[in-house]
Each structure stands twice: as structure tokens, then as C-alpha cells.
């Protein structure tokens, strides 16, 4: 499944008198990714995989979670700060797997 996630961008708020100082521009920050498995207690789907992504700016990111080969699953993250997708693999031989996506900003 591929999911595009965008959060609202927070704007600075003036709490005192206006200033003529330039507003700093934030540089793009690269995302971090981790796949976390959790036992479900269900024999049909015994493990649920959650792809956690965090630490990136700007807020728009594309995410693809897919089975790659046999018992290997990959979380692929695309972001403007990356030259190529950031990949995180998970593999387990004796588990049936379900998936989930979490955005941890």
C-alpha cells in the first residue's frame, strides 16, 4: 500500500511587537524509519508490522510497505531530503504478517 501523509505546517506567532528580522527557513531534515513487529494472538495473522517514520521536514512524505520476497517486508520512505528512498527490511520465517503505518512526528 502506498500512502501520502502531510501534516499542517505551523506558522510562527507574534507574541509582542512585529519585527523586521528575517524569519529563519528550516532546512529539510531526513526521516528515520523503523519497523516494529507485535504479536497479535491471532493464528491467521500472528504478527502486525508497524512502520514508524519520524524526524523529517517538510511534513510531506510517501510511504510504501510491501512484501519483497518470501518472508521479507520492506518499508520504503520517499522524502524531498533523500536522493533515493530510505528502506527498512523486516524478515521472520514462521509468522503470518499484517501491516500498519504510523507517522510519529
Automatic annotation (TrEMBL):
It comes from the Eukaryota. InterPro entries: Ig-like_dom_sf, Ig-like_fold, Ig/MHC_CS, MHC/Immunoglobulin. This is Ig-like domain-containing protein.
